Amino acid sequence: MQRAELADFLRRRRETMRPAEVGIADGPRRRTTGLRREEVAMLAGMSVDYVVRLEQGRSSQPSTQLLGALARALRLADDERDHLFYLAGHRPPPADGVARLARAGLVRMLDLLGDTPALVLSDLGEVLAQNRAAILLQGDHTGFSGDRRYIAYRWFTDPAARAACPVEEQEHRARQIVADLRAVAGRRSGDPTVAGLVERLQAASTDFRRFWAEHEVAVRRADRKTMLHSRVGRLLMDCETLVTPDQGQRLLVLTPANTEAHERLELLRVLGLEDFPKGLRARP
Q1: What is the pLDDT of residues 14-35, one digit of tens each?
Q2: Which terminus of the chain is less hemmed in, N or C, by CB atoms within 10 Å?
Q3: pLDDT tens, residue by residue, 168-180
């Protein structure tokens, strides 16, 4: 671990970030040109004290999870993100590794979308990043670990994962998830990550085995679905998916499909994260 170099790199990147780039108002009393340490800590979900120790070269070796959070908070480009990992004494995560990170360009698009719910997913359905609007709508899904980080695994093994979907739409949604996973399995034939996930899902769920045996294949690019929210009720949302050229990551954008959904989404923004139901936060 190169503590001095890591400290200098983090400090310089923080100082070159404009608050507006991460949705923070640049008020008239602001003395620093870049982000404050407490703002980086807030964006990365870590303590201010730890950010201070990192910048002063006094910290322990940060984990890959913390480095990923810092890379997202500082909106590092892919090369900068890899450099951050090397300075901290870690190899950058492989393209399909457990510590997979959202591409820097997609994270910037999340910022640009502002109050429109949007998230970045891997092709296997791991939520890699969400903007604030998506967290308000769906809860924070970036903190899962193990097989639970895959949407398909949670859907077929945890009833709570299906609670936001009306009962009458659940089979259709399940078929979509399986058909999408089929497409990934075909494209990544022989990949042990995909094969292992499918094997564990077949062992865990009779419904998954039934749908998988039907061999439906379809990559989801556009969809309309009803979402049930504990605070504002039903929202009919249009879902548009943009796929990276290598098809490894996707940007999912959710927009209200009617006036009622638009009004309820506006209400949700006003309510904010205060008293957010614990059941809608990610559970490892």
Answers
A1: 888 877 777 676 666 666 678 8
A2: C
A3: 999 999 999 999 9
Residue appearing with tokens 């890379």? 71
Domain count for the chain: 2
Q: Are residues 14 and 41 in the same domain?
A: yes
**Is residue 134 located within the same domain as residue 49?**
no
The whole-angstrom separation of Cα 20 and Cα 114 is: 11
Count of CB atoms within 10 A of residue 229's CB?
Answer: 19
Residue from 145, 205, 165 nearest 181 by CA? 205
- Same domain flag for 115 and 145: yes
Query: What does the chain come to in residues?
Result: 284
User: Within a domain: residue 133?
Assistant: yes
Q: Which residue matches tokens 């500082």? A: 74
Residue 93 in tokens: 């995560």
Q: Whole-angstrom Cα distance, residue 121 to residue 274?
A: 26
Domain boundaries, position 195: 104-280
Q: Is there a domain that residue 95 lies in?
A: no
